Amino acid sequence: MSHINDSTAARRIREILDQDSFVELGAYVTARSTDFGAASEEASSDGVVTGYGTIDGKLVYIYAQDPEIFGGSVGEMHAKKIRRLYAFAVKMGAPVIGLIDCAGVRLAEATDALFAFGSLYREQALASGVVPQIQAVYGLCGGSLAVSAALADFTFMEKDAKLFFHAPNAISGNTEAELDTASAEFRSEESGTADFVGTQEEIAAGIRALVGILPSSNDDDDTYGDCEDSLNRLVPEVVQASGAGVLRAISDDGFVCEPGQHYGCSVTTAFIRLNGCTVGAIAAASGEVCFRGIEKAARFAKFCDAFSIPLLTVVNSAGFEKTLCNEKRLPQAVAALINAYAEATVPKVTLLNGTAHGLLANVFAPRAVADIVYAWPNAELALIDAGAAVKILYASELEKAENKTAFFEEKKAQYLEKQGSAMSAAKRGYVDDIIAPETTRKRVIAAFEMLFTKNEEIPAKKHGTV
């Protein structure tokens, strides 16, 4: 490493990479502009350490902004160094990790810095879906940098870090004391920009774990590993589980990595391991689904498809939340998820482990897009709830019945059997097999093994518009 090996930026890099693996690039680059007292010798490396190294032997490119030099602000050469790193990453097929601690665009360089930032956005956008992009926010990440964080595939935030498009006090009628829209809590729970929140040590461990389970690029699947967990392990505990609990029960050794855990909690998005392979999982848990969960699922599904990661969908939900906020956003969010599933050509397995009624049954990887659909014996797949259906279909008879309760329960059971049960769906070809819950792990693994060589193409087009 260069002469700045004791800087905050360099220490953060070393904490993430394998010991002694970092090789710095551009250590002697300095700012070209000396206007407004910005002397080049005061900006060694132009406030950003860039280079490459390994994580568990896997090549990664990494940069870290140095808050000790011009506050880590982005100048022309600063952005140029990061762009060069992206060029390397795309050519070599390796993830890019950015460690953010930045005061913003360097005012002294004005338009040079501004347009350098614009070219950095382009590099990030073009690299999307080619190599994984991970960012971690340690200090300030405001304005232009907030957009960069959103362009990344996964974003970590230190607990005391600040990420904002507009500073809280700049928002009319708001102050930081009332609602800190720059806080890690807000960004992880309300805006969804931050996928993980933790200490500096937890961030380093989280990045290492994430890199270990992701492909290096869209052309290089190096996620396969040995599986010491039994492929035939029964999971009786899965019956009482929901969402992430179901995924933890069936995953190799209970491994679950859950981006966006605190955002849109009605839907779980997670990476799990099945027979040593990385699988993306989307679980609509019991309760009603909100637009945030749908948006999160759509983005996650697109990421998995871009990097050829198989998709498992687990469905058990009472429907969609009926609120004004959801009414505004649900149509667009649902359309985006339907589009993501339809365009995904990776192996797709769906498990119905509870209730799936109406539109929701057509949103979460239904028969129309899934390769294999399994259902537990007690699963319900119907147009509407059986009780609601009986009240509509037998309204007059129900009114005249001597024992309304007995009549209602009788007709409800009949409707479930004929139109709402897992068996009725299987008879119509909407379910491939009804499986015992405790066999879920081995049946899902077997399905993905069968689908390993899947080769599918969607209609030729430049790109979708949803």
TrEMBL record:
According to the entry, every stretch annotated as the CoA carboxyltransferase C-terminal domain falls at 226-450
Q: Which InterPro entries match?
A: AccD/PCCB, AcCoA_carboxyl_beta, ClpP/crotonase-like_dom_sf, COA_CT_C, COA_CT_N
Q: Name one Pfam family in it.
A: Carboxyl_trans
Question: What's an example GO cellular component term for this entry?
Answer: acetyl-CoA carboxylase complex
The superkingdom listed in its UniProt entry is Bacteria
Q: Which GO terms describe its molecular function?
A: propionyl-CoA carboxylase activity
Q: Which residues form the CoA carboxyltransferase N-terminal domain?
A: 1-168
PANTHER family assigned:
PROPIONYL-COA CARBOXYLASE BETA CHAIN, PROPIONYL-COA CARBOXYLASE BETA CHAIN, MITOCHONDRIAL
Protein name from the UniProt record: Carboxyl transferase
Q: Which organism is the protein's source?
A: Stomatobaculum longum
